[in-house]
Specification:
Layout lengths: L9 H7 L6 E4 L3 H7 L6 E2 L5 H6 L3 H8 L10 E4 L4 H12 L6 E2 L3 H8 L2
Parallel strand pairs: 1-2, 1-3, 3-4
């Protein structure tokens, strides 16, 4: 169960895609994104690499791979996946790593894509 204060809605997502200081992270596998697309301004860090990307990856490596500065623990990270399960797992990992402002878009891609028609 995810704490409701850590959940963002579709309406919230419509706002944050235009706020470059927010870090929207798609934790699906690259092949899933290739077949469906992604939420604008999001970066893809698959769930199994989230911890390494946030902890062991250098600033330079992160910027080279994701074309944006590596987030600091004070940044707001918003995770999403296909249906909300992996994004909730990523949220828990990020919180344990000290990213205390992290959130999840529980509706994730299924919700986003159904409303973009």
């Amino acid at each position: 169960m995810v704490d409701p204060v850590r959940v963002v809605s579709y309406e919230d997502m419509l706002k944050v895609i235009y706020q470059p200081e927010k870090v929207i992270i798609d934790v699906r596998n690259p092949d899933e994104i290739e077949s469906t697309g992604k939420i604008p301004s999001s970066i893809n860090i698959p769930l199994n690499t989230v911890q390494d990307a946030l902890t062991t990856m250098s600033e330079e490596e992160f910027k080279k791979q994701y074309q944006r500065p590596k987030p600091s623990p004070s940044d707001e990270l918003i995770f999403y996946c296909r249906s909300g399960q992996r994004s909730s797992e990523a949220l828990n990992r990020a919180i344990k790593l000290g990213y205390s402002k992290s959130k999840t878009y529980l509706g994730s891609w299924n919700d986003w894509s159904s409303r973009q028609k």
